[in-house]
Amino acid sequence: MDEQHIQARLISLLRQDNIRLWLEPFTTDTGDPELHNLQELAVKYAPVTGFSVEEVMSSLEFLRSDTSRKDEGNKEFKETSVASLELHLPREGEKKKRKVHLKTKLDITTQELKSRISEEFKFKHFNLILSGKKLSPGMRLDEQNVKNNSKVMVLNVTSDEAKSAMLEEEEKKRSQDEGVQRTQKGFEILSERDGSEDPTTTPFLEIADQKGNPLQIPNEERKALILAMGFHEKGRSLMKRRDHSAALCHLLLADEQFNKCNSALLNTVDNYAVLQLDIVWCYQALEQLDCLNNARQRLSRAEECFQKCYGEEKSRLKHIKGHTGGEDVLFLRLYLLQSVLAYHEGNKNQASYKLKEVERLFGQLCLDPDKITQLMSLGFSEQDARLGLRACRGDLSEAVLHITQRKKERKEMKEREREKRRRRLQDINTLVELSFSKRDAARALHQARGDVDKAYNILLDGAEAQTQTQTQTQTQSSDRQTKLDQLVSYGFQLDIADSVLRLMGDDLVLATQVLLDNQGVVPPDLLSPSPPSSSSEEPSTSSSSDNTASASSPLDEELVNEALEDIPRHEEDYLDLTLDEEQELMTRIRSCLDKQPSSSG
């Protein structure tokens, strides 16, 4: 761990001093100047990092050669598509883990790469790990996000336990992949539902603001947002069970969907910022130090999003909710992760500064168990008690009023929703009484956003369009029959006249000419499989097609129900952190910082 810390700290210092080790004089392979300059840097940086000159010198040498190697490797990859992978091999006896570089194409499978590694390094049973995930043997490397300069860990499995461990790992991966697919399918089904059917039998999701008012956003963006929030909730559910690996898979998919949404929308809600925190939390839980740069970007994104969403000093948040105490748990996590990041980059001063902020917030957010008990004795749930006390910064009397008010607001929101459904069903029945189908009436009402008069006009326009289509079809059919009768009146046989007229695209002049030229028979060169008749090309307009389209299979309903299980019933569930994990990490970082000498920030 010391090597990683010193290298991270040196990289930061080199950036500050604008020193590039891959340029001369540091790239000179021979002569004293190179050693002299690295020696000077080592002497300069040793007191700052708290490590010896020899240790700093060794790390500078490594960084110089590693940077030069990567530069050459990048050129080679660009020209030949041959990538360089950094393999972390298992330790042998008392030796440290070895790092080697292996050149390979990325369009080969993991199994092919394992065969090469087995042949070159004599390993028999092992797994390949990238960013905390096991690479699947049957998949290509580039399909699993393996890139040029990727760091891949070779994890040995002893021969005795190899079979059972690998089978268990494969089963876990299969189960995880299946879980992701089922979650995606469930929320895709929900995202396709527009609320035009009876919500008591066909659940659907609606994007609403904090007051429960539906947000009017483009349909494609709405679908992406539902998928994003669905993956996020599933990921949070897995995080609560401390299954951070599976959680991270879902959270990254949520991030992909959020990025399809309008940036202006993301700046008005805190969902996107919370997602960035959750992703980085999984990074630290899985000890994915190779994701430090990505973590820094995500934390910066989260902080910026919180500021835009909540306003300066949370002024906008206070205006909307009347309090800001509940959201302090999000800032505790943000500052804690920033402290962890600064520590791993070797910046002790910044890490300590952020950790002090964390400890201050932690003191405010730690709740008196007696107060929670008192609130629960009044009939409030433990979750409501915890959220209420944090929102009111520990004031018991204020918390009682706050929770009571929130319960009243939730009750009123449910009553408004029930009333909206009642009115909607009443309006649908009104349109059905005017001879429209229930399905068409529901769809038109949804399209008109609940305005029954507009829905009636939509249905009328649709009926007129359908009538015009049917009239046009009937006219075309009548016109064709007139042409056919004319050919028969010329003395041609009905079936032959019909075939030639169809082959000539219902052109009477051409059909007449062909029949005259070929003595009333179909010429051989026109004999070929006939295309479908015009009547068969018309789409079905019967009501049965609507019924089929709206029907859901038992599997669909099962997937939807699974998806809905992960959506919390409390709108502030994401703020209800026990802070147990946070306290563990705080203690660990404080212990590490106390052991390290000071560094400049």
Give descriptors for this structure.
5-stranded mixed β-sheet; 24 helices; 601 residues
Overview of the structural elements:
This protein has 601 residues and is mainly alpha-helical. It is built from 24 helices and five strands. The chain has a five-stranded mixed β-sheet, with helices on both faces. Helix 5 runs antiparallel to helix 6, helix 12 runs parallel beside helix 24 and helix 17 crosses helix 18.
Write the layout of secondary structure elements.
Blueprint: H1 2-16, H2 32-49, H3 53-80, E1 82-89, E2 98-105, H4 110-121, E3 126-130, E4 133-134, E5 151-156, H5 159-192, H6 219-240, H7 244-258, H8 263-266, H9 271-285, H10 292-310, H11 315-321, H12 328-344, H13 348-365, H14 369-377, H15 382-391, H16 396-433, H17 438-447, H18 452-489, H19 494-503, H20 508-517, H21 534-537, H22 543-550, H23 554-565, H24 580-595
Parallel strand pairs: 1-5
Antiparallel strand pairs: 1-2, 3-4, 3-5
Helix pairs in contact: 1-3, 2-3, 5-6, 5-23, 6-7, 6-9, 7-9, 9-10, 9-12, 10-12, 12-13, 12-24, 13-24, 14-15, 15-16, 16-17, 17-18, 18-19, 19-20
